[in-house]
Design goal:
The chain is an alpha+beta fold. The protein has one domain (39-186): Alpha-Beta Complex (tt1808, chain A). The chain has helices at 13-17, 41-61, 92-95, 118-132, 181-186; strands spanning 25-29, 32-36, 64-68, 72-73, 79-80, 84-88, 102-103, 108-113, 136-141, 147-153, 156-163. The longest helix is centred in the N-terminal third of the chain and has 21 residues, at 41-61. It is globular.
């Protein structure tokens, strides 16, 4: 007898939003569920460091809300659980609903790339976030600590900043905020 798993079932975006809290975690892409693998310790160290420092900066500056690993229901029907997302203060009422999820395109999505996620993060999600209207997309490679900041343009995402391991990241999106992942992770 064949076992039915959630990965074999097509679900609406609303059905996806109403799945019970994981584990396991699922994202919704092209109408189908994709099971999301558990992150590595290194991935989580990077995510916690970025999330904490970015959230603190945004709160102190009154810029908006930073959320970590929260369901994001994009207007195109895709449903992702990005590592981090940022919603500007003036869009909070529109995008941050009482269910604790993000409904619409956040202003920023951050994906920490781990072994096995690179193709999906750099190509599939890259395109889907652009199509959904996400203004900024950051990719952080957990192995090399390379950080890339992309800004949405009519023809696709344009790379605004690339920072190698050991260099200080000064994103265009948050003037005045900076972080050196290598120094902070090793320190």
């Amino acid at each position: 007898m064949a076992v039915k798993t959630l990965e074999n079932i097509a679900l609406s975006l609303d059905d996806w939003l109403n799945l019970p809290e994981g584990p396991p975690k699922y994202e919704r892409e092209t109408g189908r569920l994709l099971r999301v693998a558990s992150p590595t310790r290194r991935h989580q160290d990077i995510l916690l460091l970025l999330g904490y420092t970015m959230r603190r900066f945004c709160m102190n500056q009154g810029l908006g809300v930073v959320v970590m690993e929260v369901d994001v229901a994009l207007p195109t029907g895709q449903g992702y659980i990005p590592d981090l997302a940022f919603v500007r203060k003036d869009r909070e009422a529109e995008l941050l609903w009482d269910d604790g999820k993000v409904h619409g395109a956040p202003d920023l999505v951050v994906e920490v790339i781990s072994p096995g996620t690179e193709t999906r993060d750099r190509h599939v999600k890259f395109q889907n976030y652009w199509e959904a209207g996400v203004e900024w997309y950051w990719l952080v490679d957990s192995q090399t600590l390379l950080i890339q900041e992309f800004q949405r343009a009519s023809e696709g995402y344009l790379c605004r900043t690339t920072v190698a391991e050991g260099e200080t990241f000064r994103p265009h999106l948050f003037p005045g905020w900076r972080i050196n992942l290598k120094n902070r992770l090793d320190g």
